[in-house]
Amino acid sequence: MLEQKHLLGLDGYPAKDIETIIDTAFSFREVLDRPIKKVPSLQGKTIVNLFFENSTRTRISFELAQKRLSADTVNFSASTSSLKKGESFKDTAQNIEAMKIDAVVMRHPDPGAPLHLTKHVDAVVINAGDGKHEHPTQAILDMMSLKEVFGKIEGLNVALVGDISHSRVALSNIHGLKALGANVTVCGPPTLIPPHIGSLGVTVSHDLDEVIEWADALNILRIQMERMGVGLFPSVREYRDVFGVNTERLDRHKKELIIMHPGPMNRGIEIDSAVADSKQAIILDQVLNGVASRMAILYLLLGGKAEE
Ligand code: NCD
After folding, report:
1. Stated pTM of the model
2. CB-ligand 1 contact for 107 (6 Å cutoff)
3. What domain range includes position 105?
């Protein structure tokens, strides 16, 4: 049903397939509201969650999506420090083949690791975040959440605010949103925005107030302390003052605006608690839509093959 066998990233991913995934996700949302939140769609399919990097919400979201679809799942978590990379990667791939696993959901600190895996296994590979590269399922759930509020993506003004350089969520959102016809601005300090990002068709701004005036939605990204060296911005306090989204700043603009965040949030830095917990924030809807989106992705990539 989808053009590509794997979901590795949204760069060059067909817009019509993103739309199919989002539409299917809305129908799975309905399953999540039932007293018994389970359908037999992936009965008999085996999925492994291969996490080489810490994750709470994405891993749980995938696991839940798999259980709701009645798939059999196994989890493998490892920190790369405890593995000798090259060799263990190949071993892992060979094990997956030997165990006749249908799909692999993979998070890895190295960009391109999921693509690399596709060269060694027959299984469907889904990227759950590869280093600073892409996080396609997060972008799809973000777009689903925008569509839920606005009814469409085309023509929307969406701003990605914060640490763009270290964010795979930003890159996947840019590719997906542009494919579906949204206008995208990235906003943050110059040191946290890649120099040639304009070539992806986005506008760059360093003025959060200007961006708030323009935007229909702000997707606020975490300052990724663990991925950055020292000295990319003067201090956390200064970052908060210049790029932090807080109630006083939003109140000054007197306009309706949707607030998003992929989590985990640094409350009090890029987003204030009052904003995160406000009515205009759809952060928990994003979490729910994450399960529905991942159900849709798994179903579309694996579904309908049970009898083969
Ligand atoms: C994101 C990630 O891991 O890239 N989080 C997530 O998927 N829930 C964003 C982040 O780590 O800030």
Report:
1. 0.94
2. no
3. 15-134+289-301
